[in-house]
Queue: 2 jobs
Job 1
Amino acid sequence: MKLDCKHVWEHISEYIDNSVDAKLREDIERHLEHCEICSAILDSTRNILILTADDRTFELPVGYSERLHERLAKELASPEQDSDDK
Amino acid sequence: MQTTGANETELIARILGGEKELFHDLIRPYERMAYLTVYSIVKNETEAEDGAQEAVISAYRHLASFRGEAKFSTWLTTIAINEGRKRLRKARGAAEDSIDELAEEKEGDYTPAPLADWREIPLEALERKELREALRVAVAELPDIYREVFTLRDLEELNIVETAQALGITTGAVKVRLHRARILLQKRLVPFLKTMAPARRSFFGRAR
């Protein structure tokens, strides 16, 4: 089947996740071979996901880990308190 | 994405057996995840940090009830989501509780933005701080239900099934929300990328 651009866009997220079936995948790839617009959309979306997964994009507050483990240490040192959260 | 492998299962058994200190090691790989999960809901650094601490303490206190049907990471994420939502409810007031549900029905324009000159944008552009900042802002501005799914899936890299488990929604809903979140971000960031490209070109033009 020959796909139009709109059809490709509808499946772009699943295509990136590799969760479209083999036939659709093939159709999308055939479309991408000759469609600059869809290729650019796919590339830009992929790059946004790469940037999202990059630890430098979403940083933790400075000292977060130290404070967390400090708090945890206090909790571990305190007597068992199963009753307060049942 | 770590699995609840043999080591983790053993670690949990030892903690429950009395070696409490090992909980520090159990939680270490997931402390970033706990923070980002709460942050995606409350969108405030201080609240997110307090909430992540509460979630971790709660996971420790309830560790005996972790049965291993889900991964430990998914279980912890669920606790973090609940903690985040509890804080959000407190901040917003209960009256607005149903707002998120309405967003699902909303018909929006989920068409990506075309950009002809993406290929001319050098890869180094992705290294630019401005782009990271623009992405952070765009994610923060996503509707809540899209941001939650996007955070678990694309930031914390849970798979579709784990994301659905953690949020208590169907895998179909995860896919729809994820698709919309990604397209909305693509649309938001394209204008930013477009202004970036000519700037790079003129820079190289001058240099030559």
Job 2
Amino acid sequence: MSASTTPSLHLRGSRRSILADRVATVVLWGTGAFVLLLLGSIIVHFGIAAWGVVSPSFVLSDPSDTALGGILPILWNSIYMLGLTMLIAVPVGILGGIYMSEYAGDNKLTEAIRFAEEAISSVPSIVVGLFGLILFVDNFHMGFTALGGALALTMFNLPLMTRLSEQALRAVPQDERSASLALGATKWQTIQHVVVPLAIPGLVTSIILTAGRVFGEAAVLLFTAGLATPAHYDFTNFNLGDPASPWSPLRPCTTMAVYIYKLQSEGLGIYVSKVVDGSAAILISMVLAFNLGARLVGRLLTRRLTAA
Amino acid sequence: MAQLTAANRLASLRSAPGFRERLDLPRRVLFLAAVSMIGIVALLLGFIAWQGIQLFLKDGVPVGQVFSATWQPDATSGPTNYGLLPFILGTIAVTALALLISTPLSVGLALFLSEVAPRWARAIVQPALEIFVGIPSVVWGWLGLTILVPFLHDTFRHDFVISLPVLGDVFRVPGFLTGFSWLAGALVLSIMILPTITSVSFDAFRAIPQELRTGSLALGTTRWQTIRHILIPAALPGVLTAIVLGMTRAAGEALAVQMVIGSQPILPRAVTQPIETLTAAITLDMGNTVFGEPWQDALWTMSLVLLIISVASVVLVRLINKRRMAL
């Protein structure tokens, strides 16, 4: 009798824990399903919203062209801003990453650099934008310029770029370095000819990931690159000193993300919300492309470089 | 080892290093690139701090006034009062509610990814999270503005009241007047910080040695008991770090919040009412004010407050992690 009650008591206790375990499992699966559902519905939402808005004429015409208006100059600005920012951020970020991975000793200075890295990553983007406003617009009297925006974006993304490239370089096995040094190569030769080439897949991934973030950023640019809607760009005007030239870094440069913010703040006409929907859809698909691109290119390069 | 010492001896036999080697140019250039971040932080702190105290230095506003509740920056409509309390409390309120919504969801998701999900499920959910990170904040704001705000307004327009027979109304939340509200801001933010909290806590759970799990399971516990009594306590410093990072991101987010919060500089009382945050006020008013006027100086003071919050959170994260090292 007693032999049969003890297990049943025990069973009752464990039945409750098993039930709790089941419930927890269902709830935890639910969180995963929730994220997928949310992402799916966002993509479907923008798919529907962009239907009938995003067309070749929408992408390739000026805001003043048709009733709906196009986004060509703004899209160009986004790409231009991205290029200009990466032109500064990529070399500095990778060089900094090399220092942090190959040279930095375990000392107070390294500690300070790491602290600075974390501090910039945690500073709100709007504050970085304000810093750009004081520095470039007010102190250097540059006005709202693409260059000011790109420099502010660089400051904001430098920690990310540095950290990602440091990680890519650290992932190179120590044996490769030892082998090169044992062959009599100097440290710099080792970095140049062994470490960096091996880290290229990781470095490319980190560049693309940073690019995705730069592309979607608006708060940094609001007060540095300006809010003006460009009317029309003459792409044959290569005079870099002319603020009207789309190639000039010293002109106001409203990007897609900033344009979306500007349009929604000016009130929601039916056309305006269509333009915003279309722009947001393009913005999201570009960011998606950057993300997928980073994975794909990273994998491809790894395969090619490690198989060779 | 023997080979290494032989190599060292060989190296010492080489001729003394020349000027080029002693200069070691690459090292210096690389060092400059890394150290530039310290320069950026120093400049940023310096400039924002200097602009942020102009309200007190140049405009002669007493420091105590900043902590009052009245925001009346416009000198053309009566005596000014630069009380930043509505903004500071607004930022705290929105951030706290966003964390309250997001933390259980994010930590649950991290547990799902690290403990429950089979390989195929992880292979779908993790890339999805990365896409979440990539969605720009203006797009979140736009979704909030066009979907969430109308939804809140249409669904919860009427006052929510719980009445008891004798006591009368014991609980009352006013309905949404417009949908622009504390709750709307918090909901948008909770989704935006979800990937941050999830990925950092995921790393914390992954870092727990496998023996702790197998040991616990071998004692006959269920998976949930192992999670609750072993894994969550073990990963607590990491999860706390994740929450602080999420908090920093929520407090600093500007555009998405500005688009749905309603921008009313009043003290937060009900989640259905419009309020205002530091970031939203800066975003909205910086362009409408003139450089050097007290109104704009007050906005710079707000950004100094934001900067202090973010630096404090970095220090907090470091303290949490230092304790973890000590344990």
